[in-house]
Design brief:
Elements: H1 6-22, H2 25-44, H3 48-68, H4 76-79, H5 85-125, H6 142-157, H7 167-175, H8 188-191, H9 222-255, H10 262-293, H11 311-317, H12 320-335, H13 338-350, H14 353-376, H15 380-398, H16 400-410, H17 417-439, H18 443-452, H19 474-495, H20 500-505, H21 509-526
Helix pairs in contact: 1-2, 2-7, 3-5, 3-6, 3-7, 5-6, 9-10, 9-19, 9-21, 10-17, 12-14, 13-14, 14-15, 15-17, 17-18
Length: about 550
């Protein structure tokens, strides 16, 4: 029951909202918790034991870590001395145990098959017998709620937050049904306390100012409720009008990559990048809009990523919650570690600040991007995808003095329109290339596609009718191009600080509802569904 399916949009979500609305305040948390567990059960059946087990484990271990941390000095150096040494060691050991079990379950379920396959290649090459890999079922969302649980336990360990003794709040933080499949990966401070401030009543009232809501965070105006519903429709527009249509040509071109020439490889890379963005950001719209119906504000996961001017900026705008998690719980701890400090100090004396900064950055970024690649899946092309961005980010850092010198010597205005546009176009090339390797059916296939870019280019394929032979007719391409243009214009306006929502809310009632109905009918009329179309599974639900 994906978020894009009618069973969710017209069945599960409205029924839960109705039950939520008619229940007294003291029962609403339990309604949401029960609905979340029911949703997970409907999607994964008995695999719900993993979510429940993670919830119980995080709850109990958080309390244990919190107790062991009571009375310890803030300074790690002070905590390592008597009389705190044994307590600090136990505190650290329990944190390692708690997170080790969480990561152990995740890695066993997602990566056992991959590592067994690699070992078998070595054994066969050495003349040994192959190992039979266990056949494992992976529950939906395990990569998302595992990172949330680990982040929560680390926050408790660092004593930034107290251990939460409210089991239902922890259960909703980890398993709230709108974010079960695809995130966003919320930190404890982002969402957890919102589940303790649900409204006294769920009636909808109008007020003079659009978008006004109660301090509890729950929608209290018709405009806010309408905005939530329209955000869901906007997400469905991206998914059904653009992403699902593009899936047809993407599957064909990547499935038969050996037959394609250079220009069609570029078409494949661009189409997949657009498909991924439209689907993932579209489902985030559905997820965030769904949560807002219950008054829960989930963190945003996209911020106009295709206006980025560098690879690092792109990752600050794309899958923001994953990037924030990696920065807070992996990059900063490594960069602030004793090893990194000693390395930086030594290199500053030997080679200067520039080399020291580059080396420490490499030390901290390497585990981040290896983890990023592996997080997406147990395949070599995902690992390569992480290394690809690692190299690019280190190159950006290394070339900063060269870039500054270039602009200074040439007199070119760094923030001028021309220079900005060129940097954006350069970043598009980086993004499309990375997504080509990401989607390729294996790392070897990715390199084969990359080589195809440089021979037999065949640019005439763009207008000689070839693009109409991959399952998409002229009407499909019109819907894709038109839908992409609408989304691009929307993102452009947001990038320039223009709020579409505020503008719509300021229109008169007939104009507002004309715009709402235009969006709804665009999804109904131009959406890819019905005869000849197969439902497309959510891409990020597989990660």
């Amino acid at each position: 029951m994906g978020y894009h399916q009618l069973s969710y949009l017209l069945g599960f979500l409205p029924l839960v909202f109705l039950l939520f609305s008619i229940c007294p305040k003291r029962s609403r948390r339990y309604v949401l918790a029960g609905a979340s567990w029911l949703y997970f059960f409907l999607c994964s059946r008995y695999l719900i034991v993993y979510l429940l087990g993670t919830t119980v484990w995080a709850y109990l271990m958080g309390i244990w870590i919190g107790k062991l941390g009571e009375g310890l000095p803030e300074s790690a150096a002070a905590a390592s001395r008597e009389p705190y040494r044994k307590q600090a060691m136990a505190h650290h050991a329990v944190m390692l145990l708690a997170n080790g079990v969480l990561f152990g379950v995740l890695f066993y379920l997602k990566y056992t098959g991959f590592f067994v396959r690699q070992l078998n290649k070595l054994f066969v090459h050495a003349g040994g017998a192959a190992i039979i890999a266990p056949r494992l079922l992976v529950p939906i969302g395990i990569s998302f709620y595992t990172l949330e649980a680990v982040g929560y336990l680390l926050e408790v360990y660092w004593r930034r937050i107290p251990a939460d003794r409210d089991f239902i709040r922890i259960a909703l933080f980890l398993g709230f049904f709108p974010q079960t499949m695809e995130g966003p990966i919320a930190r404890y401070g982002d969402t957890a306390m919102q589940f303790s401030s649900l409204p006294e009543k769920a009636e909808i009232t109008r007020c003079g100012m659009p978008g006004i809501q109660a301090q509890s965070g729950v929608p209290r105006t018709l405009e806010e409720m309408t905005a939530s519903a329209m955000r869901i429709c906007w997400g469905m527009f991206k998914k059904l009008v653009v992403a699902d249509r593009l899936n047809i040509i993407v599957a064909t071109l990547f499935g038969e990559y050996e037959k394609q020439n250079g220009v069609l490889i570029i078409v494949a890379a661009v189409c997949y990048t657009v498909q991924l963005y439209m689907e993932f950001s579209g489902m985030m719209d559905v997820v965030i809009g769904s949560a807002r119906l219950f008054g829960i504000r989930l963190p945003e996961n996209f911020r106009q990523p295709f206006f980025s001017q560098t690879a690092s900026e792109f990752w600050r705008r794309w899958h923001i919650s994953l990037g924030a998690w990696l920065k807070d719980y992996l990059f900063y701890p490594v960069a602030a570690s004793t090893t990194a400090k000693k390395l930086g100090k030594r290199l500053r004396k030997m080679s200067g600040r520039y080399v020291a900064k580059l080396a420490v950055s490499a030390l901290a970024l390497t585990p981040v991007w290896l983890f990023n690649g592996l997080w997406h899946g147990a395949e070599w092309n995902y690992i390569f995808y992480g290394i690809y961005y690692l190299v690019l980010l280190l190159l950006e850092l290394a070339l900063e003095p060269v870039k500054a010198g270039f602009y200074r010597r040439t007199g070119i205005h760094q923030n001028g329109r021309g220079a900005t546009l060129l940097r954006i176009l350069r970043t598009w090339v980086i993004i499309f290339t990375g997504e080509m390797f990401f989607r390729a059916p294996g790392l070897r296939a990715g390199f084969c596609m990359f080589r195809s870019l440089f021979h037999g280019f065949g640019i005439s394929r763009l207008w000689d009718g070839t693009l109409l032979t991959f399952g998409l007719g002229m009407a499909d391409w019109t819907a894709i191009i038109g839908g992409t243009a609408v989304v691009f214009l929307y993102d452009l306006l947001r990038e320039r600080g223009f709020s579409i929502r505020d503008w719509v809310f300021k229109r008169k009632l007939p104009v507002r509802w004309a715009l709402y109905n235009a969006l709804i009918f665009a999804v109904i009329i131009f959406g890819a569904y019905g005869t000849g179309y197969q439902a497309v599974d959510l891409i990020y639900a597989g990660f």
